[in-house]
Amino acid sequence: MKQLVSNANELNEIISIYSITNSVDENGVPIKEEKKLFDTFAKVMTHLLKEFKGDAGNYLEDKTTFIIRYDQPAEITATMKIYWGEHKYEVVQLLRDNAEKKFDTVITKIVK
Hints:
Blueprint: E1 13-24, E2 30-45, H1 50-53, E3 64-69, E4 81-84, E5 87-95, E6 103-110
Antiparallel strand pairs: 1-2, 1-4, 2-3, 3-6, 4-5, 5-6
């Protein structure tokens, strides 16, 4: 399989990772609060990844893929949000690099 990142210098975009917590406001109305956890560098792939998707079919269409370093200040989960530029993304799938522990792949879709 072709590598998505061959060198850490390819991680040239800054993204922000936010956690989402559920709470209640002073009127008892449930609200979701976002808390910025950290910024990190990423390689951003906004195309359809045709050369990488293989048997995935159309799964990667309309998705944005962020390639980040394996070690981060906090573990990224499916409930977190990613901000890049003026857009917010929700995590669809996180592919951890448990073998080499170099780069993780975070597949997202834009929050409309």
